[in-house]
Protein backbone atom coordinates (compact mmCIF):
# COMPACT_ATOMS: atom_id res chain seq x y z
CA UNK A 1 0.00 0.00 0.00
CA UNK A 2 2.67 2.50 -1.03
CA UNK A 3 0.30 4.62 -3.13
CA UNK A 4 -3.35 5.61 -3.32
CA UNK A 5 -3.74 3.35 -6.36
CA UNK A 6 -2.96 0.37 -4.14
CA UNK A 7 -5.68 1.36 -1.68
CA UNK A 8 -8.33 1.09 -4.41
CA UNK A 9 -7.57 -2.62 -4.71
CA UNK A 10 -8.37 -3.44 -1.08
CA UNK A 11 -12.17 -3.16 -1.23
CA UNK A 12 -12.65 -6.94 -1.41
CA UNK A 13 -10.24 -7.69 1.43
CA UNK A 14 -11.88 -5.00 3.59
CA UNK A 15 -15.38 -6.39 2.98
CA UNK A 16 -14.14 -9.88 3.90
CA UNK A 17 -12.44 -8.56 7.07
CA UNK A 18 -9.09 -9.82 5.77
CA UNK A 19 -6.95 -6.75 6.50
CA UNK A 20 -4.67 -6.33 9.48
CA UNK A 21 -5.15 -3.35 11.81
CA UNK A 22 -2.68 -1.09 10.02
CA UNK A 23 -4.11 -1.83 6.57
CA UNK A 24 -7.68 -1.42 7.81
CA UNK A 25 -6.85 1.95 9.41
CA UNK A 26 -5.27 3.33 6.22
CA UNK A 27 -8.03 1.99 4.02
CA UNK A 28 -10.79 3.48 6.22
CA UNK A 29 -9.11 6.88 5.95
CA UNK A 30 -9.06 6.45 2.19
CA UNK A 31 -12.67 5.19 2.24
CA UNK A 32 -13.91 8.45 3.78
CA UNK A 33 -12.66 10.38 0.76
CA UNK A 34 -13.33 7.87 -2.06
CA UNK A 35 -17.05 7.41 -2.96
CA UNK A 36 -16.35 4.75 -5.66
CA UNK A 37 -14.53 2.55 -3.11
CA UNK A 38 -17.31 3.11 -0.57
CA UNK A 39 -19.91 1.98 -3.11
CA UNK A 40 -17.88 -1.12 -4.00
CA UNK A 41 -17.39 -2.01 -0.31
CA UNK A 42 -21.14 -1.74 0.28
CA UNK A 43 -21.89 -4.13 -2.59
CA UNK A 44 -19.15 -6.60 -1.62
CA UNK A 45 -20.23 -6.57 2.04
CA UNK A 46 -23.75 -7.57 1.05
CA UNK A 47 -22.35 -10.39 -1.10
CA UNK A 48 -20.13 -11.67 1.74
CA UNK A 49 -23.14 -11.73 4.08
CA UNK A 50 -25.17 -13.77 1.57
CA UNK A 51 -22.31 -16.24 1.12
CA UNK A 52 -21.96 -16.69 4.89
CA UNK A 53 -25.67 -17.43 5.19
CA UNK A 54 -25.50 -19.98 2.37
CA UNK A 55 -22.65 -21.83 4.09
CA UNK A 56 -24.46 -22.21 7.42
CA UNK A 57 -25.13 -25.80 8.57
CA UNK A 58 -27.58 -27.13 11.16
CA UNK A 59 -26.02 -28.65 14.33
CA UNK A 60 -26.32 -32.41 14.93
CA UNK A 61 -28.77 -33.88 17.48
CA UNK A 62 -28.01 -33.40 21.14
CA UNK A 63 -25.79 -36.07 22.64
CA UNK A 64 -28.19 -36.55 25.56
CA UNK A 65 -30.87 -37.92 23.23
CA UNK A 66 -28.35 -40.34 21.71
CA UNK A 67 -27.24 -41.67 25.12
CA UNK A 68 -30.80 -42.15 26.39
CA UNK A 69 -31.83 -43.85 23.14
CA UNK A 70 -29.03 -46.40 23.51
CA UNK A 71 -29.96 -47.10 27.12
CA UNK A 72 -33.48 -47.97 26.01
CA UNK A 73 -32.30 -50.47 23.37
CA UNK A 74 -29.27 -52.16 24.96
CA UNK A 75 -30.38 -55.28 26.90
CA UNK A 76 -28.97 -56.05 30.33
CA UNK A 77 -27.16 -59.42 30.57
CA UNK A 78 -28.65 -61.45 33.47
CA UNK A 79 -26.01 -63.51 35.37
CA UNK A 80 -26.57 -67.29 35.48
CA UNK A 81 -25.60 -69.58 38.42
CA UNK A 82 -24.25 -73.11 38.19
CA UNK A 83 -26.92 -75.94 38.51
CA UNK A 84 -27.25 -77.64 41.90
CA UNK A 85 -25.55 -81.06 41.70
CA UNK A 86 -28.29 -82.87 43.69
CA UNK A 87 -31.41 -81.34 42.18
CA UNK A 88 -30.22 -80.17 38.80
CA UNK A 89 -31.90 -76.82 39.37
CA UNK A 90 -30.20 -73.43 39.24
CA UNK A 91 -29.92 -71.62 42.56
CA UNK A 92 -31.91 -68.44 43.09
CA UNK A 93 -29.89 -65.29 43.12
CA UNK A 94 -29.21 -64.02 46.58
CA UNK A 95 -30.88 -60.85 47.77
CA UNK A 96 -27.50 -59.14 48.04
CA UNK A 97 -26.73 -59.96 44.42
CA UNK A 98 -30.08 -58.55 43.30
CA UNK A 99 -29.49 -55.39 45.31
CA UNK A 100 -25.99 -55.03 43.94
CA UNK A 101 -27.30 -55.48 40.42
CA UNK A 102 -29.94 -52.82 40.96
CA UNK A 103 -27.38 -50.44 42.42
CA UNK A 104 -25.03 -51.08 39.50
CA UNK A 105 -27.82 -50.43 37.00
CA UNK A 106 -28.83 -47.26 38.85
CA UNK A 107 -25.23 -46.10 38.89
CA UNK A 108 -24.94 -46.73 35.15
CA UNK A 109 -28.13 -44.80 34.49
CA UNK A 110 -27.02 -41.92 36.71
CA UNK A 111 -23.65 -41.81 34.96
CA UNK A 112 -25.31 -41.91 31.56
CA UNK A 113 -27.71 -39.10 32.45
CA UNK A 114 -24.87 -37.06 33.99
CA UNK A 115 -22.74 -37.61 30.90
CA UNK A 116 -25.65 -36.74 28.68
CA UNK A 117 -26.37 -33.60 30.67
CA UNK A 118 -22.73 -32.52 30.52
CA UNK A 119 -22.58 -33.22 26.82
CA UNK A 120 -25.78 -31.27 26.19
CA UNK A 121 -24.46 -28.38 28.29
CA UNK A 122 -21.20 -28.37 26.31
CA UNK A 123 -23.10 -28.64 23.04
CA UNK A 124 -25.38 -25.77 24.07
CA UNK A 125 -22.41 -23.63 25.04
CA UNK A 126 -20.80 -24.28 21.65
CA UNK A 127 -24.08 -23.55 19.90
CA UNK A 128 -24.48 -20.31 21.88
CA UNK A 129 -20.92 -19.30 20.97
CA UNK A 130 -21.61 -19.95 17.28
CA UNK A 131 -24.81 -17.94 17.48
CA UNK A 132 -23.04 -15.04 19.20
CA UNK A 133 -20.30 -15.13 16.59
CA UNK A 134 -22.91 -15.15 13.81
CA UNK A 135 -24.75 -12.21 15.35
CA UNK A 136 -21.50 -10.30 15.83
CA UNK A 137 -20.58 -10.95 12.20
CA UNK A 138 -23.99 -9.79 11.02
CA UNK A 139 -23.80 -6.67 13.18
CA UNK A 140 -20.29 -5.91 11.93
CA UNK A 141 -21.43 -6.43 8.35
CA UNK A 142 -24.44 -4.18 8.91
CA UNK A 143 -22.29 -1.44 10.45
CA UNK A 144 -19.82 -1.66 7.56
CA UNK A 145 -22.66 -1.42 5.07
CA UNK A 146 -24.24 1.56 6.83
CA UNK A 147 -20.83 3.24 7.06
CA UNK A 148 -20.25 2.69 3.35
CA UNK A 149 -23.72 4.04 2.54
CA UNK A 150 -22.97 7.30 4.33
CA UNK A 151 -19.56 7.68 2.68
CA UNK A 152 -21.02 6.94 -0.76
CA UNK A 153 -24.17 9.07 -0.37
CA UNK A 154 -24.59 11.60 -3.22
CA UNK A 155 -25.09 14.41 -0.69
CA UNK A 156 -22.20 13.41 1.59
CA UNK A 157 -20.14 16.36 2.81
CA UNK A 158 -16.92 16.16 4.81
CA UNK A 159 -14.76 18.33 7.03
CA UNK A 160 -11.28 17.55 8.32
CA UNK A 161 -9.57 18.92 11.41
CA UNK A 162 -6.37 18.50 13.41
CA UNK A 163 -6.45 17.97 17.17
CA UNK A 164 -3.98 18.51 19.97
CA UNK A 165 -1.10 16.05 19.88
CA UNK A 166 -1.15 15.64 16.10
CA UNK A 167 -4.34 13.57 15.86
CA UNK A 168 -6.65 14.27 12.96
CA UNK A 169 -10.27 13.57 12.18
CA UNK A 170 -12.72 13.74 9.31
CA UNK A 171 -16.48 13.90 9.77
CA UNK A 172 -18.75 12.92 6.86
CA UNK A 173 -22.44 13.88 7.01
CA UNK A 174 -25.36 12.84 4.80
CA UNK A 175 -28.44 14.94 5.43
CA UNK A 176 -30.54 12.65 3.25
CA UNK A 177 -29.63 9.58 5.33
CA UNK A 178 -29.57 11.66 8.54
CA UNK A 179 -26.32 9.92 9.52
CA UNK A 180 -22.69 10.82 10.14
CA UNK A 181 -19.36 8.99 10.12
CA UNK A 182 -16.26 10.04 12.02
CA UNK A 183 -12.84 8.86 10.79
CA UNK A 184 -10.06 9.31 13.37
CA UNK A 185 -6.33 9.15 12.74
CA UNK A 186 -3.44 8.82 15.21
CA UNK A 187 -5.55 9.32 18.32
CA UNK A 188 -3.54 8.99 21.54
CA UNK A 189 -4.56 5.99 23.63
CA UNK A 190 -6.96 7.10 26.40
CA UNK A 191 -6.03 6.47 30.05
CA UNK A 192 -6.65 2.98 31.44
CA UNK A 193 -10.36 2.42 32.07
CA UNK A 194 -11.33 5.32 29.81
CA UNK A 195 -12.70 5.62 26.26
CA UNK A 196 -13.23 8.34 23.70
CA UNK A 197 -16.93 9.13 23.40
CA UNK A 198 -18.49 10.91 20.43
CA UNK A 199 -21.24 13.51 20.82
CA UNK A 200 -23.66 15.37 18.61
CA UNK A 201 -23.49 19.10 19.36
CA UNK A 202 -27.11 20.28 19.42
CA UNK A 203 -26.14 23.75 20.60
CA UNK A 204 -27.79 23.68 24.01
CA UNK A 205 -26.59 20.18 24.89
CA UNK A 206 -24.32 17.35 23.79
CA UNK A 207 -26.04 14.12 22.71
CA UNK A 208 -24.27 10.69 22.98
CA UNK A 209 -23.20 9.37 19.57
CA UNK A 210 -21.18 6.24 20.35
CA UNK A 211 -17.77 5.10 21.58
CA UNK A 212 -14.42 4.63 19.90
CA UNK A 213 -12.26 1.54 20.35
CA UNK A 214 -9.50 2.53 22.81
CA UNK A 215 -7.14 -0.01 21.21
CA UNK A 216 -7.44 1.52 17.73
CA UNK A 217 -5.82 4.94 17.24
CA UNK A 218 -7.22 5.06 13.72
CA UNK A 219 -10.74 3.92 12.87
CA UNK A 220 -13.99 4.84 11.16
CA UNK A 221 -17.05 5.05 13.41
CA UNK A 222 -20.68 5.27 12.36
CA UNK A 223 -22.04 7.83 14.82
CA UNK A 224 -24.98 6.40 16.76
CA UNK A 225 -28.30 8.16 16.32
CA UNK A 226 -29.71 10.67 13.89
CA UNK A 227 -27.92 13.87 12.95
CA UNK A 228 -31.13 15.86 13.37
CA UNK A 229 -30.45 19.54 14.07
CA UNK A 230 -26.90 18.93 15.31
CA UNK A 231 -24.52 21.63 14.12
CA UNK A 232 -21.33 19.77 14.96
CA UNK A 233 -19.71 17.04 17.02
CA UNK A 234 -17.40 16.68 19.99
CA UNK A 235 -15.09 14.11 21.58
CA UNK A 236 -14.54 13.64 25.31
CA UNK A 237 -12.73 11.13 27.51
CA UNK A 238 -15.25 9.12 29.55
CA UNK A 239 -15.30 6.06 31.84
CA UNK A 240 -15.43 2.70 30.05
CA UNK A 241 -18.99 2.13 28.84
CA UNK A 242 -19.60 5.82 28.21
CA UNK A 243 -21.64 8.51 29.94
CA UNK A 244 -25.12 9.99 29.53
CA UNK A 245 -23.56 13.47 29.40
CA UNK A 246 -19.98 14.74 29.12
CA UNK A 247 -17.92 14.49 32.31
CA UNK A 248 -14.73 16.10 30.97
CA UNK A 249 -13.64 18.98 28.77
CA UNK A 250 -13.83 18.22 25.03
CA UNK A 251 -10.75 16.75 23.41
CA UNK A 252 -12.03 18.12 20.11
CA UNK A 253 -14.97 20.08 18.70
CA UNK A 254 -15.78 20.09 14.99
CA UNK A 255 -18.57 21.92 13.16
CA UNK A 256 -20.42 19.89 10.55
CA UNK A 257 -19.82 20.75 6.90
CA UNK A 258 -22.33 23.13 5.39
Short description:
The chain is α+β, with helices and mostly antiparallel strands and 258 residues long.
Give a quick set of tags describing it.
four-stranded antiparallel sheet, alpha+beta, 6 helices, about 260 residues, 8 strands
Write up what this structure looks like.
The structure is a single chain. This protein is an alpha+beta fold. It has helices at 4-7, 11-15, 21-31, 35-54, 63-73, 95-152, and strands spanning 157-162, 168-174, 179-185, 194-201, 206-211, 219-222, 232-239, 252-255. The protein has 6 helices and 8 strands. It has a 4-stranded antiparallel beta sheet, with helices on one face. It has a 4-stranded antiparallel beta sheet with strand order 5-4-7-8, with no helix packed on it. A hairpin with a 4-residue loop joins β2 and β3. α4 (35-54) runs antiparallel to α6 (95-152) and α5 packs antiparallel against α6. The protein starts with a helix and ends with a strand. Mean pLDDT is 75; it is low at 52-58.
Topology of helices and strands:
Blueprint lengths: L3 H4 L3 H5 L5 H11 L3 H20 L8 H11 L21 H58 L4 E6 L5 E7 L4 E7 L8 E8 L4 E6 L7 E4 L9 E8 L12 E4 L3
Antiparallel strand pairs: 1-2, 2-3, 3-6, 4-5, 4-7, 7-8
Helix pairs in contact: 4-6, 5-6
Ranges where pLDDT stays below 50 over 5 or more residues in a row are 52-58
**Gross morphology:** globular
Question: What percent of residues adopt helix (DSSP H or I)?
Answer: 40-55%
Largest sheet: 4 strands, antiparallel
Distance between the termini: 33 Å
Amino acid sequence: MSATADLHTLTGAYAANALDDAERARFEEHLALCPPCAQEVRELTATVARLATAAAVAPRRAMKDEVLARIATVRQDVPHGEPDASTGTKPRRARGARDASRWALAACLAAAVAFGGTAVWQHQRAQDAREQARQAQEQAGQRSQELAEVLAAPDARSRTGTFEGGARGTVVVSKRLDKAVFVAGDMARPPRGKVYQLWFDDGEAMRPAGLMDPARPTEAVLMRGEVGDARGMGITVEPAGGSARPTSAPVALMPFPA
